[in-house]
Amino acid sequence: MSTFTDKGTAAPAAYFAGIVWVNMNVKPEEGYNINMGTVTFEPKARTNWHSHTSGQILFVIEGIGYYQEKGKPIQLIQKGDVVKIPKNIVHWHGASHGNLMRHIALVPDYDKDKTEWFQAVTDEDYNIIK
Amino acid sequence: MSTFTDKGTAAPAAYFAGIVWVNMNVKPEEGYNINMGTVTFEPKARTNWHSHTSGQILFVIEGIGYYQEKGKPIQLIQKGDVVKIPKNIVHWHGASHGNLMRHIALVPDYDKDKTEWFQAVTDEDYNIIK
After folding, report:
1. Using the beta-carbon criterion (under 8 Å), do A80 and B31 form an inter-chain contact?
2. 0.90 cut: is pTM over it?
């Protein structure tokens, strides 16, 4: 058995900004056709803009954060929220200015998924909600 | 956005014993190829014996419970645990004698999955760990 509340290891700097930790709970090679991990964002940390052809589900298990789909306003997300990210929608997620945010993130149909990474979320875009 | 910490509605009595609540967070018809919900077991409540051809993952988000694979000892599971149930393994999960247990449960590759339900877990089998 593993523990999803463990912080894990530093997230790859190429795809994230700020201090981010990733704990992979279910790896595709274990025979389940999903990619699933706990991601912990310290305040102001966030993903780059990205998209998944299979979509993505977030379960916010701690704190307060932000979620934004390209062209839409930033949404506040907090402990208890389920965020359903549609297929192929460019988006980002991360912590709020003053609080850590931790979520479980899951990509279904992983064998068919293509995840694309784009540019970082600029401070100008991030601070719109400040 | 939905809330995974909501208790939901009463679970079907045909497949569960005791007081059990189910909150479906992600339904297959939403376009994600998974079946995912929060299940809350009051003390002594449990599933019947069952199996999934696609396997199942549990994230224990509250309390203390039990998990057993057919022919093996009962395992104690608690908040923070990730339980990876292998494909086609007959098993059950539920609360412990004295504590509620709440988990997120997820079946991947839902379009290919066949879940089979068997007999109830007898008090004799459940009380082995008492």
Report:
1. no
2. yes
pLDDT tens figures, B48-86: 999 999 999 999 999 999 999 999 999 999 999 999 999
pLDDT at residue B130 tops 90: no
Q: Which of A2, A25, A26, A32 to mutate to test the interface with B (most CBs of B within 10 A)?
A: A32
Tally the domains of chain A: 1
E strands in chain B: 2-3, 9-10, 16-17, 20-26, 35-41, 46-47, 50-52, 56-69, 75-78, 81-85, 91-95, 101-107, 115-117
Instruction: Determine the residue of chain A that is closest to B107 in CA distance.
Output: A32
ipTM of the complex: 0.92
- A85 at B interface, C-beta within 8 A: no
Q: Is residue A2 part of a domain?
A: no
| Residue B4 in domain | no
